[in-house]
Description:
The chain is mainly alpha-helical. It has 13 helices and no strands.
Amino acid sequence: MEKIRRKEERAAASLPLPARRRIALPSPSAPTQGQGVSLADAFDPGAPPPFGLADIRAAIPKHCWVKDPWRSMSYVLRDVVVVLGLAAAAAPRQLARYCIQLHISYLFIVLSSQVLPMLPNIVNLPMDKFQTALSRILQGSPRNGPSLDPSEILIAIHLIDPDKEGIALKQVIDACAACFEQRTIFTQQVLAKALNQLVEQIPLPLLFMRTVMQAIGDFPALVDFVMEIMSRLVSKFGNILSYGYDS
């Protein structure tokens, strides 16, 4: 009983003075309707409240009723700028990744000039999707043939800059390993052709020596060829060093 009365007193104290005057709290010693009737039993939830809309408006601070369109529009503009900024930051890479996954089934009709810019995003896919995309590229279309030949794919994978493209180095290593697993496609001749072109790149691709060692392990007959390109590599860097020393 005492708790109910305190609660009603706190509710009445929070109202403006005009509304407070209209509220008459019964005395705890005097029952509302008769002996044994509590305040909770006497409360009628269907009765109108003891205050009106004017009392509610009077309780709200005056400055809250001041209209300021410029401030309101500034809040809207701020929210729009934040949303657009977040969308611009997230969209390019997520959109490219989504488009790659969505159009894997159409890669066999894409030209080589279109595949090469997409290759970093293809390499960044999960391994199962990368293998599907790789088979599509190598399959090509009956009319135009493969979009890229195996040596071009291997070279393009080695030329990916992980830091520039925002790709983990492990993704590139796994992509090379997936190529080596398909020995019927990435044959000894294909590897020799790819290594012959990679050795001419300046700077030398990051995974070049790893690929050389893996190629020898899978195709021991490439040892003589690897020794030849390594001698060319030493000669090339010797000429570069001597040119820098002379200048």
